[in-house]
Amino acid sequence: MVQIEQLAARTPAVSVDELLKGFYPSPRFGEVSFASYRPDPAQPSQAHAVRALESFAAGVGAGDGDGFFKRFFGKKQEASRAGIYLDGGFGVGKTHLLASLWHATPGPKAFGTFVEYTNLVGALSFRKTVEALSSYKLVCIDEFELDDPGDTVLMSRLMRELADAGVKLAATSNTLPGSLGDGRFAAVDFQREIQVLADQFDVVRIDGEDFRHRGLPTAPAPLRNDELAHHMKAEFDGKTVARDEFSTLINHLAGVHPSRYRQLIDGIDGVVWRNVHTITEQAVALRFVVLADRLYDKDVPILASGVPFDQLFTEEMMTGGYMKKYFRAVSRLTALAREGQNHEPS
């Protein structure tokens, strides 16, 4: 028997402590380590990145207490910066290494995606976020990218103040720090903020095959509405499933802060969506990307009718400034849809 709920009926209330407790690697990277990373012998930069991160981990919590401005404007000799920044394409193991760093260092510490940190600021306020994270020894930021001027100024200030408080920073991205924001907005007008960000990181390049060149995987064919119940019983018997009309879920997400999406899907073993349609509004699409990331983090299988996930976003979105986010979301939703159709209905 399947226990059925609705995400659209959930409105999680989350305290500050609960929000901060959610900043840890997803179960996919729950037990990784530097030793479990397998560098490609043909790409020496991968082994170099492991050594660089191991060295960086040894300095976390060392208690030197030097802030960013003291290091930057103080003595002339070269000093290690507050952060380390892993630059490389998709599929080279950046998140694996970042999570390994998190596991290898003492707490308190935080691990989250760039979007999760901007959402945290939106939920708590900038000052309360700085106060909460300033006592941490390490803040890890996965998938670092600047999408708009507001994020540029916000993250520039946040990283600067955390570094000044002695917090070590680690980030991953597909873009070098000095090029953040290129193609997204008038980045030239925000070079000061972008440079402040870049100045706080030592960059480690990780080479390898860039999975962006492989294109999107083929999405499984959507189910018919009259097939959903049979597949749901076959796949999720004895489990808890969130079953929603897609349009109702989309509307509901507008009233739930993205920082709470992790709690929104808490206890859910699978999701079933009726009548998936192409999202045409950018704000709605970006919210849905956050939900897709949280579902992927928890490996929640999906059953869906309507359009296939490779038609979830408009062509303009898939070629615009946020295309990396949308490609990642489609890829992840496609993987979860494949998991949701593992069994044939009886």
Structure report:
The chain is an alpha/beta fold. Helices cover 42% and strands 14% of the residues. It has helices spanning 16-21, 44-59, 68-73, 94-104, 114-124, 126-133, 149-164, 191-198, 225-236, 246-253, 261-264, 282-297, 315-318, 323-340, and strands at 3-5, 83-87, 109-113, 138-142, 168-173, 201-205, 240-245, 270-276, 302-306. The strands form 2 sheets. The protein has a 5-stranded parallel beta sheet with strand order 3-4-5-2-6, with helices on both faces. Strands 1-7-8-9 form a 4-stranded parallel beta sheet. Helix 12 (282-297) links the parallel strand 8 and strand 9 (302-306). Helix 5 packs across helix 6. The protein is globular and about 60 Å long. The chain starts with a strand and ends in a 6-residue tail after the last helix.
Shape: globular
How many distinct helices? 14
Q: What's the story with the biggest beta sheet?
A: 5 strands, parallel
Uncertain stretches of 5 or more adjacent residues: 64-79, 180-190
Mean pLDDT: 84
Number of strands: 9
Rounded to the nearest angstrom, the radius of gyration is 21 Å
Helix amount: 40-55%
What percentage of amino acids are in beta strands?
5-15%
Structural class: alpha/beta
Put the structure in a nutshell.
42% of the residues lie in helices and 14% in strands.
Break the fold down into its secondary structure elements and pairings.
Blueprint: E1 3-5, H1 16-21, H2 44-59, H3 68-73, E2 83-87, H4 94-104, E3 109-113, H5 114-124, H6 126-133, E4 138-142, H7 149-164, E5 168-173, H8 191-198, E6 201-205, H9 225-236, E7 240-245, H10 246-253, H11 261-264, E8 270-276, H12 282-297, E9 302-306, H13 315-318, H14 323-340
Parallel strand pairs: 1-7, 2-5, 2-6, 3-4, 4-5, 7-8, 8-9
Helix pairs in contact: 2-4, 5-6, 6-7, 7-8, 12-14
